[in-house]
Amino acid sequence: MSEEHIQQWRGYVQRRSVLAGDDIAELEEHLRAQVDDLKAVGLADDEAFLVAVKRMGRIDDLSREFAREHSDRLWKQLVIGADDTGESGSARRDLWVAIALAIGAALTLRTGLAWLDEDVSARLASVLVLPWLAGFFGWKRGMARSSIAVVVIGFVTFGVLLAVYPFDGDPGDTMVLASIHAPVFLWLLMGVAYVGGDWRSGRRRMDFVRFTGEWVVYYFLLAAGGGLLIGLTVGTFHAVGTDAEGVVTEWIMPFGAAGATVIAAWLVESKQNVIENIAPVLARVFSPLTILLLVALLIAFAADPDLIDVDRELLILMTVILVLVLALWLYAVSARPPQAPPGLGDWLQVALVVTAIVVDLVVLIAMAGRIAELGLTANRSAALCLNVVLLVNLAVSAWLGLAFVRGHRPVAALERWQTAYLPVYAAWAAVVVITWGPLFSWV
Fold it and tell me: Which residue spans traverse the membrane (predicted)?
């Protein structure tokens, strides 16, 4: 379908171009007009799209790169010319900007660790690092001033609140909860920069979902490589009688953790054709394994009903597993070709979500029992509310998923639901950071 191709083209141009949103919209309008004209003279949808892209003039710089990234597509031959080889100047520029911002993130985090109290620097870590990543995408997307203001105000507000709130304890529950939920909200706020301020677009939100999954893959690859290098460094210096652990802990690890945040994003932007092949494989591999894990948990609970009533750590781990399930589901939907018919992988995803719903209900019952027996605390209330938020998403996802595999709804309905639910997570994270401390006396 030409509409699907146009959406792919627009999404790619938005991710790769420094053009403003209005300029991209104008280019898309021109492309659509070309497609309509060609269809009017008898060309099929796909043929009209191919020829229209070929006629885009100097926009071919982007269109040809788009075709190169999708080298397995038939229409590559119609778009890529013989002289379209080599690294572009914009790619080199992006790399140097990413390196500069990565250094800025590393220096900011290291300065915060050196100047601020340990507890304060811990809860401000995301505020110190993620603005640099938002800056990378704000520069790359050419954001409007109003969107820039929203992002800046959000980061500054959360930074001030996390710095001045009088959290008690060593550390207390409310401080830990704020430290955990602040990165969730700030990451989604950074997503406003990623989409160039076009946060109302469900398609652009789905692009951000894809980016998030790809970024996680690249960040862990960088972390694994960095961990190996650090281990070899410490071992080598230890072998010659020098203790390098202090330097590694105080300098190399903070620098690497912060800098890799921006570098991983640059890798996703520049190597999308590689990760798009890896991501669907990861979703297919881990979904059935996660189903087996959830079924094993349910069997264990059935064999020993008292187990879940008393094990606080188990309840926490199960909540983490439910988050993982939603991440797998969300990424599987985002990576799925929209034109493909329902298959075995889609049925497995539905089975995964349905199993997760059963587990979530068990967790909610257990949490309600603990609250009735031991009373309401910051941790218990946050865990209970989070599981309710997850349950709503899981329930609607299962309903839409069943409708899709049975042929009653398109996969686009799944995407719209998942992208529409993202602000709910942001709102929940903001509520915990802003209100949980005052509600529970900062303990």
Answer: 95-116, 122-139, 146-165, 177-195, 216-239, 251-269, 281-302, 314-335, 347-369, 381-405, 417-439
Residue 183, token pair as written in the block? 């990165």
Question: What is d(CA 137, CA 333) in angstroms, rounded to the nearest whole number?
Answer: 24
List CB contacts of 60: < 8 A, sequence separation 6 or more: 54, 79
Q: Which residues contact 187 (CB under 8 A, 6 or more apart)?
A: 126, 130, 212
Instruction: Quote the tokens at residue 401.
Output: 């998923």
Torsion of CA 143, 146, 152, 153, to 10 degrees: -160
**Which has the closest alpha carbon to 75: 41, 46, 40, 35?**
46
d(CA 68, CA 78): 11
Interatomic CA distance for residues 363 and 381, integer angstroms: 13
Which alpha helices (H) appear in 195-252, and where do they start and end?
202-239, 245-247
Beta carbons of 355 and 294 less than 8 angstroms apart = yes
**Integer CA distances (angstroms), 171 to 15, 166, 208, 381, in order:** 40, 11, 33, 18
CB 186 within 8 A of CB 154: yes
Check if the beta carbon of residue 275 is closer than 8 Å to that of residue 15: no
Please tell me the distance from the alpha carbon of residue 35 to that of residue 46, in angstroms, as a whole number. 9
5 and 49 in contact (C-beta within 8 Å)?
yes
Provide DSSP, 317-339.
HHHHHHHHHHHHHHHHHHHS-TT
Query: Which amino acid is residue 9, in one-letter code?
Result: W
Give dist(CA 298, CA 133) in Å, integer.
Answer: 40
48: part of which helix (H) or strand (E)?
A: helix 45-54
Distance separating alpha carbons of residues 358 and 355, to the nearest angstrom: 5
Name the one residue in this structure whose structure tokens are 């398609």: 203
State how far the Cα of 273 lies from the Cα of 65, in Å rounded to an integer: 11
The DSSP annotation for 264-287 comes to HHHHHHH-HHHHHHHHHHHHHHHH
Per-residue pLDDT of the chain in tens (443 residues, 90 and over written 9): 456 677 777 766 665 554 555 556 667 777 777 777 777 777 777 777 777 776 664 444 555 554 444 434 433 333 334 344 444 567 788 899 999 999 999 999 999 998 988 888 889 999 999 999 999 999 988 888 899 999 999 999 999 999 999 988 677 889 999 999 999 999 999 999 999 888 888 878 888 988 888 898 899 999 999 998 888 888 888 888 888 888 888 889 999 999 999 999 998 888 765 545 566 567 777 888 899 988 988 888 788 776 665 555 766 777 888 888 888 887 777 667 666 788 888 899 999 999 999 988 988 888 888 888 888 889 889 988 999 999 999 999 999 999 999 988 888 888 889 899 999 999 999 999 999 999 998 88
Residue in the block written with tokens 């520029």: 93
